[in-house]
Amino acid sequence: MWSVSDDALVAGLATGDRDAASAFVQRFQRRVFGLARTIVADDRAAEDVAQEAFVRAWKHAAAYDPRRGSVVGWLLTITRNLAIDAVRVRRPIAFDPATLVGLDRASTERAPAELAELGDDTARLRVALSRLPEDQCRAIVLSGLLGYTAREVGEIEDIPLGTAKTRIRTALIRLRAALVSEERAE
Amino acid sequence: MSTYTCVQLRDAAPELALGILGGAERAEALIHLTNCTRCQAYVAELTEAADTIPLLALEHEPPPGFDQRVLARFGAGRRRSTRRWVASIAVAAAAAAILSITIVRVVDANNPVNQAGGATTSTSTSTPSTAAPTIVQARMVSATTGTSAGWVSVAGRQVAIAVDYGVDSGTYGIVVHPGKDAVLIGDMSITANRGSWTGTSTVDVPAGSEIALVDAQGNAVCQGTVATSR
User: Fold this and answer.
1) What percent helix, strand, coil does chain B show, rounded to 5?
2) Which CATH entry fits the domain spanning A1-90: 1.10.1740.10, 1.10.260.40, 3.40.50.720, 1.20.120.350?
3) Which of A71, A119, A174, A184 is deepest in the core (most CB within 10 A)?
């Protein structure tokens, strides 16, 4: 739909280009709103967070550095931090991390050749995550996506703090290894 | 508690990369990273992986009119100018006396004996450190609300600051006020209430020193008092 690169859109946003700003919002609004909604679990609060995330991105577009990561990664990190701040006090909720992030059996069973063809970072990440043991998968979704601290993960999962820390650590290290090996396979 | 070893840092690195490490632990970790390029590289690798995790969230169509409401806010808001900030930092550095007055005012506002000028600032909540002599810490509190804004750790002239609450996005000057003149030692960015900075102070930072973040106008937004080492 848009042939302009993400980086070019951010550059346009930084210069105050109205069309670039509009295209930027339209391109990323489903991702930004989806992430905010996943974390705050309330549509109205999610809209506030998503709006604020775009405003922050607009204000700081000139400081965006492509060498430090993708546009979508930058924008979603802003969104995540705002959403976590918006729900500082919250009750642990029972949920299935596989459902929350759209993991399914089909993606788990893909052949390596098929995986390489997926190309999309998100698809590769989902596959890497689905290959983690379930307890580690939950730990990394709770901490990395929803922003729960190791202590909170321990409380939610009813495990000692040390075990929660170990699960988070092991999961992230394995995720990192999986992403690196898939990059090399391409 | 002393400055982290490489083993301790690597233990804490995943939580640091995921942004879920508490202020005090984060400050300890950042102090270690100042001097350890191998650990820096390790944390950078993990951060790269951690930063992909928000991609996992499923897309969802926002309510109708969302994009127009966002664009309306772009029109209404005022963008901060990085260039203007750089210029004002230069002015602020040259006019140390002005900064000095600003900091003194914040310090005085925290002094119960002299509350006259500090109606908006609550009592100091600087926390005595439990650190070994090599590292001291202080809680940074908001200059306007008096609530906790983050932590500052000092080891010799090394300074690590971790802010995780209550400071608006933007770039702030870092000012050390060891007791006489205030000295600008760097600047740090805050995005979505979070930011961290590590570096070396150009002046000694003895116990009792004030460390503050100042905005482009030279006003302190949060500050902490370096506790006595014990």
Assistant:
1) 35, 25, 40
2) 1.10.1740.10
3) A71
Q: Does domain B82-225 have CATH number 2.60.40?
A: yes
Q: For position A119, what pLDDT does the model report?
A: 52
Chain B residues in contact with A31 by the CB 8 A cut-off are 57, 59
Question: A92-186 maps to which CATH number?
Answer: 1.10.10.10
The interface predicted TM-score of the complex, written ipTM, equals 0.84
- In order along chain A (186 residues), what is the average pLDDT of each group of 10 residues? 79 89 95 94 93 92 82 92 80 59 53 51 82 92 92 93 96 90 66
Of the CA atoms within 13 Å of residue B38, those in its CB half-sphere come to 5
Angle (deg, nearest 10), helices A43-59 and A6-15? 70
| Contact criterion met (CB < 8 Å) for A173 and B61 | no
In this predicted structure, what is the pLDDT of residue B26?
86
Provide the pLDDT for residue B30: 86
pLDDT at B193 over 80: no
- Could you give the CA distance from residue B159 to residue B31 in angstroms, rounded to a whole number? 7
Name the closest residue on chain A to residue B54, using Cα atoms. Answer: A145
Amino acid identity at A64? Y
Q: Determine, for residues B17 and A172 on separate chains, whether the beta-carbon distance falls below 8 Å.
A: yes
